[in-house]
């Protein structure tokens, strides 16, 4: 039997006391007796907030999602709320997704808030994450929580924290909350609910959210009956909202993938409920061929990300990546604002440092600033909060997230789904298509092609390997990439941008993050970052070439694909 580290055994033994219920104690004792490896994984560290809040595998232990780790979070958050809002009547909203234990964990979180004298609005059933963001502002809450692990595998769950503006918490606030949590012992968590302070919510908030979604994304496209849509919720929460939003906006030809319509935390029909993965949309694509659909849309379990497939120039259904979807949506919104005469220099769009540089190019073309933040939609929400004198048009990130307007302060697949259908409908009415619109943009602004490679590195050894990879990229930087000289390196961990041609440096005015970005003389951009929510290290590639005319699209795309593949081989990332 593998010997258990003394510190880990000490942490685990603390979970055998009456502070923890009998079931938890029994599970921990079983790990001590017969599974030292799992015991080590469960207790070697404490789950921490990442780019999307706290996310982890469910089970007993400090490095797991369970009633005690979430209870401790909520107790610390309750203490923090009372400090920040002294002598105020505090209110929080709580939502949850389709995952195993989400409903019961949401009730635990509600119990702790109510035990601390805080009013709780708890959704009576599962709801999309963007609706929680909306509800925080709509119900005038100081805080919101959603229980979700987004598109992670079934054994995961998570806990996202939202603030009064409807956006996720950002530094220094997250650090202050973590400090409150770390001061606590599990014995200090108040788990006895004050049921009088817990109010279940549903229809009223649903109606307000649906109306706001339609208001922000229905551009009254003509001939909606001519467009055929296939939609899959991938066993997640969007089934509660998207069909009704599309119906209210006038779409009748909506075909739902029925085998995936029932919420199910096992996600039985897919290997991963992630619309970034082509396999996840396989059933939707098959249905699209049967009904001759114009567009396929699939959303992740908590309905903040969406994947889209559309017909290419030959009529074949192809999947778009998040960057492609984002630029088409952004260009459409910019065009609508321009047509309405609403662009006056006080508007902005938003994106992230690992997303396509084409967003900045688009902003420049319309005379609209493109603000760039760290990975994660909380940074786009922060832009809206930090620049109240400016209007937010829309924005997104490469990981299949988009936000239209500022009524929600997180990526929102509900409203983005309607927007994608409006773009498709308007393009078709004009003798074009979603895909043709994308190619037209490449001709106008340059052909940008992106690729993401994610390397999974699980457990303690994986974390060490990811750490070492980032160290190597910093200490032994690449000097050329595919024959083009590296001219600039941005290190967001040190906040230093280095000009590789003259050695000069400047400060990056964005919060610190473990991200490294290389730029080459020919316009290539490569970013590396460990995921904040999954055991992965991610590499983002962006290359570009001019496209003189639509007819040369396939030829230039082949050149760009070949370039990316050469870089991947050069960096040994296969």
TrEMBL record:
SUPFAM superfamilies: Phosphoglucomutase, C-terminal domain, Phosphoglucomutase, first 3 domains. Keywords: Isomerase, Magnesium, Metal-binding, Phosphoprotein. GO terms for molecular function: magnesium ion binding; phosphopentomutase activity. InterPro entries: A-D-PHexomutase_a/b/a-I, A-D-PHexomutase_a/b/a-I/II/III, A-D-PHexomutase_a/b/a-II, A-D-PHexomutase_a/b/a-III, A-D-PHexomutase_C_sf, A-D-PHexomutase_CS, Alpha-D-phosphohexomutase_SF. Its cofactor is Mg(2+). One of its GO terms (biological process) is carbohydrate metabolic process. It holds the Pfam family PGM_PMM_III. Residues 48-186, 208-309, 321-441 form the Alpha-D-phosphohexomutase alpha/beta/alpha domain. The keyword Metal-binding applies. The keyword Zinc-finger does not apply. Belongs to the phosphohexose mutase family. This is Phosphoglucomutase. It comes from Kordia periserrulae.
């Amino acid at each position: 039997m593998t010997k258990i580290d003394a510190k880990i055994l000490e942490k685990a033994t603390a979970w055998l006391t009456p502070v923890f219920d009998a079931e938890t104690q029994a599970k921990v004792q079983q790990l001590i007796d017969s599974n030292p490896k799992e015991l080590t994984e469960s207790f070697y560290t404490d789950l921490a907030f990442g780019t999307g809040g706290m996310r982890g595998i469910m089970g007993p232990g400090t490095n797991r999602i369970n009633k005690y780790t979430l209870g401790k979070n909520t107790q610390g958050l309750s203490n923090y709320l009372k400090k920040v809002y002294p002598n105020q009547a505090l209110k929080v909203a709580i939502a949850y997704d389709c995952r195993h234990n989400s409903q019961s964990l949401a009730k635990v979180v509600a119990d702790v808030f109510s035990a601390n004298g805080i009013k709780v609005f708890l959704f009576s059933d599962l709801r999309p994450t963007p609706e929680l963001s909306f509800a925080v502002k709509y119900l005038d809450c100081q805080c919101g929580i959603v229980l979700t692990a987004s598109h992670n595998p079934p054994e995961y769950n998570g806990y996202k924290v939202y603030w009064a503006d409807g956006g996720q918490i950002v530094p220094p606030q997250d650090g202050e909350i973590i400090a409150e949590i770390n001061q606590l012992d599990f014995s200090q968590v108040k788990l006895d609910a004050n049921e009088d302070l817990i109010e279940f919510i549903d229809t009223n908030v649903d109606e307000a959210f649906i109306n706001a979604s339609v208001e922000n994304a229905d551009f009254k496209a003509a001939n909606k009956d001519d467009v055929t849509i296939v939609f899959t919720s991938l066993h997640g929460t969007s089934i509660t909202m998207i069909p009704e939003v599309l119906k209210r906006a006038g779409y009748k030809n909506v075909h739902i993938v029925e085998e995936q319509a029932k919420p199910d935390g096992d996600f039985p029909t897919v290997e991963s409920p992630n619309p970034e993965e082509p396999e996840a949309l396989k059933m939707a694509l098959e249905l699209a061929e049967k009904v001759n659909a114009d567009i396929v849309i699939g959303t992740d379990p908590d309905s903040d990300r969406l994947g889209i497939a559309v017909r290419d120039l030959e009529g074949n259904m192809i999947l778009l990546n998040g960057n492609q979807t984002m630029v088409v949506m952004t260009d459409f919104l910019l065009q609508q604002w321009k047509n309405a005469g609403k662009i006056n220099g006080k508007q902005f769009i938003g994106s992230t440092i690992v997303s396509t540089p084409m967003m900045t190019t688009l902003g420049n073309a319309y005379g609209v600033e493109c603000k760039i933040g760290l990975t994660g939609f909380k940074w786009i929400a922060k832009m809206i909060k930090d620049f109240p004198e400016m209007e937010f048009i829309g924005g997104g990130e490469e990981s299949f997230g988009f936000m239209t307007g500022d009524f929600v302060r997180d990526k929102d697949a509900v409203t983005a789904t309607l927007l994608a259908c409006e773009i498709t409908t308007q393009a078709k009415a004009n003798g074009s298509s979603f895909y043709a619109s994308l190619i037209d943009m490449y001709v106008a602004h340059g052909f940008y092609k992106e690729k993401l490679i994610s390397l999974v590195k699980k457990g303690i050894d994986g974390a060490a390997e990811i750490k070492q990879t980032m160290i190597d990229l910093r200490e032994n930087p690449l000097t050329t990439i595919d024959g083009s000289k590296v001219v600039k390196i941005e290190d967001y961990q040190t906040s230093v941008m280095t000009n590789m041609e003259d050695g000069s440096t400047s400060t990056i005015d964005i919060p610190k993050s473990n991200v490294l970005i290389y730029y080459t003389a020919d316009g290539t951009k490569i970013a590396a970052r460990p995921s904040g929510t999954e055991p992965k290290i991610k590499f983002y590639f962006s290359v570009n070439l001019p496209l003189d005319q639509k007819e040369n699209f396939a030829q230039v795309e082949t050149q760009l694909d070949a370039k990316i593949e050469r870089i991947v081989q050069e960096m040994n990332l296969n």
